[in-house]
Amino acid sequence: MNRIYLDHNATTAVDPAVLDAMLPFFSADFGNASSIHTFGQRARSAVETAREQVAALLNARPQEIVFTSGGTESDNHAIFGVVNAATASTKHVITSSVEHEAVLNTCQALEKQCIAVTYLPVKRDGLIELADLRNAIRPDTVLITVMHANNELGTIQSLSEIGRIAADADIYFHTDAVQSVGKIPVDVKSLQLDLLSLSGHKLYAPKGIGALFIKGGARVRQFLYGGHHQRGFRPGTENVAGIVGLGKAAELARISLESDAQRISILRDKLERGLLSRIPDSRANAAGAPRTPNTSNIIFPGIEGEALIIALDLKGLACSTGAACSSGAVEPSHVLTAIGLPASEARASIRFSLGRHTTAADIDPALEIIPAAVAQLRQLSPTYKKEAAARS
């Protein structure tokens, strides 16, 4: 069976060039980057080269890049770091209702520490209202954290406008850019960012490595303690192989960003249009908003998302649903309910996310497999059949 992978927002395969760059640091170049002998200096040189590569992708300075274990740690460092460094007697954070759990749960932890948090609502297209952001700012607001691209919808927030608002109010601005870095241009200077989180496994580097951009001069308190690695901000022996992989992935992304985005968006649009034309009553979520070129989220009324995921997997096609499973209970996606979908439609929504290695040879069979699976599940759905009969 030829398998089709349309779940690149969940994770990506390590690029062969990235793996080749990493391999020596598992064997011959195994040194600790903090050691002063030749073995250590080879590792140190590789780490600093990677720092330069990541910085170049973001238009940052190398000294503004801190390597972490991934996006979640970067988000935690950024949010806790800014709040804990602020000296005001009361503190307030602004975020959005559609953030990744790495941000939402961190903000909820702050609330337990008596830090006030405002969760901005979003419109049907998944974007915040800039007027809501301006109105939410208080004298004690210390941080605005709004994601760049949404992991479920692909919608791209207007960071340049948010950055301008934050700068005018002299408030730190952080973005979770895990789903945008490597897919669309990200320039920390033009976006007026103070902090940015990214994760390696979303851009063809390995899992377990990420980075945090911290603008020079920003006051951010560390929350891990140990040695003096990475200027003392993020202690612990560096994951040299992972860092090298992230650096190489950043270099590849910078070179191929435009061509990849153009090619992938054509395939995404072909898939989306094909499914909407072949499957009655289907519609795309947030289709009118600016989106990352690889992401499509489509409602298939009358089906349960998890059932469709399983049916498609049995046919060799991998994608994902926006619903999260917890303790055996299926809850609708907080992102999809935030844009106004009823629970039934949120549970019937499927995310397709394409990647660098997706080709037309994947899309053509997908346009046969997915409609057939939806039709089969709808035949088993008395609710859908009754609604369809009423419409006719």
Would you write up a description of this structure?
Helix content is 41%, strand content 15%. The chain has 392 residues and is an alpha/beta fold. The protein has two domains: 4-10 and 257-391, Aspartate Aminotransferase, domain 1, CATH 3.90.1150.10; 16-253, Aspartate Aminotransferase, domain 2, CATH 3.40.640.10. It has a seven-stranded mixed beta sheet with strand order 2-8-7-6-5-3-4, with helices on both faces. Helix 6 (159-168) links the parallel strand 5 and strand 6. Helix 8 (305-314) packs across helix 11 (360-379). The chain starts with a strand and ends with a helix.
What are its keywords?
2 domains, Aspartate Aminotransferase, domain 1, alpha/beta, Aspartate Aminotransferase, domain 2, four-stranded antiparallel sheet, 12 helices, single chain, 392 residues
How many strand segments? 15
Total number of domains = 2
Low-confidence stretches: 323-329
| H/E topology pattern | EHHEHEHEHEHEEEHEEHEEEEHHEHH
Q: For the record, what CATH class of the largest domain applies?
A: Alpha Beta
- As a whole number of angstroms, the C-alpha radius of gyration is 22 Å
* Oligomer category: single chain
Helix content: 40-55%
Structural class: alpha/beta
